[in-house]
Amino acid sequence: MTLAETLLHALRDHGATEIFGIPGDFALPFFKVIEESAILPCHTLSHEPGVGFAADAAARYRSDLGVAVITYGAGALNMVNAVACAYSEKSSLVVISGAPGAAESGSELLLHHQAKSLGSQFRVYQEITCDQAILDNPHTAAREIARVLRSCREESRPVYLELPRDMVNVEVGAVPKLPPTAVDGEALAACAGELLTRVAGARRPLLLAGVEVRRYGLEEEVATLARRLHLPVVTSFMGRGLLAGQECHLLGSYIGLAGDPEICALVEESDCLLMLGVIVCDSNFGVSARQIDMRRVIHAADRCVKFGFHHYPELPLEGLMEALLAKTATVEPERSMPETRPYPRHLAADDAPIAPIDIARGVNDLFAAHGPLPIAADIGDCLFTAMDIDHIELVAPGYYATMGFGVPAGMGLQVASGRRALILVGDGAFQMTGWELGNCRRLGIDPIVLLFNNQAWGMLKTFQPHNRYNLLDSWGYAETAAPLGGHGAHVTTRGQLAAALDHAARSRGRFQLVEIALSVEAISPTLQRFVQAQSRHTGMAVESNS
Ligand code: TPW
């Protein structure tokens, strides 16, 4: 079999179900095989950041490989930010870049798309992927593919494969089936035993679930463990949407001082905080009321389980969950569980201007009437507003915090899930990647897009209310929807918002863009608390609005 076909079969065998991409001359031979072999469907977008975000979202949704295929230099380097986001947030994204062939690489001429040297791109990608290979040797290519794809799955981080264009149709051997990296069974059993003893001896144990739980497809296992141990559960900020639809006592998401004060107290005062798959970053823990002493928590992440002053290296979360479930078949005595809070609903259909919390109410009403939709959110107040939306599957760059994620990620989400996606995006972020919506018709998808138009980089303006550089023009977004193949509505009152949401939910077949006029002063309760807490922590003063 040729290298290109071998690679496509290996991607499929490792769990990929589609490719997102943009061709270029160095990638054209591979694209030809992708289309003609039909091993995996291929969806093209308009701009490489969108390709990266869409493939990342597909990986996050399916807990499996997402694939982005781009051309050398101008394509691959244009996607660096999206891959860095996937690296930080542990998304299993496979980047395949076309590249010059051996003969042209050895020529005296500088090649188009070349940066400093022909190897520059590889070195850039070494910084933002966990494993890499240049497939320029037919004798080793199949083995390298096997190793790199295993790393992608096991580490749940992006990987990089460079495919020189003269290698595409070269015959190669079969991709070997590599066994998973060996795990010490005794260490696993000892670790699981120690963990259960700690939980059993605690008065206020709590399970804090992070993104790895989804990345490794362990939501059911984690919910089962929580039920068996009668542990209340919260997700991290990044892990918002985890465990949606699972049966466990899920209280909501921990956002420190920016979130629900009761959840904040439960997490920070727990005498046994069991953190499963949580990334220890500032957006998860930066605005805590009191510093969580990581030496007093049990923390399983990055294939390592840490207990205060000692740790078990090389224990993957899947193995740990299996060992814990094997030891917890019997039901422990019940603990009393904290109360869960309802999310706001019943949007008043009146003439009042719209605040972000109204959007949360409207979405919750929409879910109640028409069923829930998986959500893709950008960074900005739209993501904070999502904290008041029902706990539904969500993809968002909660830690890396890149703008431009929401629209293409929502499109990738719908392609990967086959379910209509709900996209939450600010006007600043929409200006970056909103044009990708023009590809919905070709892709056969019809997401609902809620555009939070406050005519500003609002998050920044919250910190600096007086500076003009944080202000944006209004581009008439709703009117651009029809020529792009969708339907647009511009709403300024709560009544109009309620009607537009209902119309969007009932209208299938083309994307629905609801442009929501917001005053820049109107921010979500979570952002309000976040800004206050953040300024206290960083010493960055919030300038007064008066
Ligand atoms: C790729 C820095 C963080 S938040 C923000 C900026 C510019 C404003 C977002 O404006 P938007 O939403 O989308 O209108 P809202 O709710 O704040 O009004 N470049 C990139 N990513 C980031 N995070 C920035 C700049 C930033």
Q: How would you sum up this structure in a few lines?
A:
By secondary structure, the protein is an alpha/beta fold.
Helix- and strand-based class?
alpha/beta
Strand order of the largest sheet: 9-8-7-10-11-12-13
Strand percentage lies at: 15-25%
CATH topology title of the largest domain: Rossmann fold
CATH homologous superfamily of the largest domain, by name?
A: Thiamin diphosphate (ThDP)-binding fold, Pyr/PP domains
Number of helices: 22
Mean pLDDT: 95
Integer count of domains: 3
How big is the Rg? 24 Å
Compute the number of strand runs: 19
What would the principal axes of the Cα set say about the shape? globular
- CATH architecture descriptor text of the largest domain: 3-Layer(aba) Sandwich
The bound ligands are: ligand TPW
First-residue to last-residue Cα separation: 70 Å
Largest sheet: 7 strands, mixed
Helix content: 25-40%
CATH class of the largest domain: Alpha Beta
How does this model look, in words?
The strands form three sheets. A seven-stranded mixed sheet has the order 9-8-7-10-11-12-13, with helices on both faces. It has a six-stranded parallel sheet with strand order 2-1-3-4-6-5, sandwiched between helices. The radius of gyration is 24 Å and the shape is globular. It contains 22 helices and 19 strands. Helix content is 38%, strand content 16%. The protein has 546 residues and is α/β, with parallel strands linked by helices. The model has no long low-confidence stretch (mean pLDDT 95). It folds into three domains: 3-164, Rossmann fold; 185-327, 3-Layer(aba) Sandwich (Rossmann fold); 356-538, Thiamin diphosphate (ThDP)-binding fold, Pyr/PP domains (Rossmann fold), CATH 3.40.50. Ligand TPW binds at residues 378-382, 401-404, 426-429, 452, 454, 456-460.
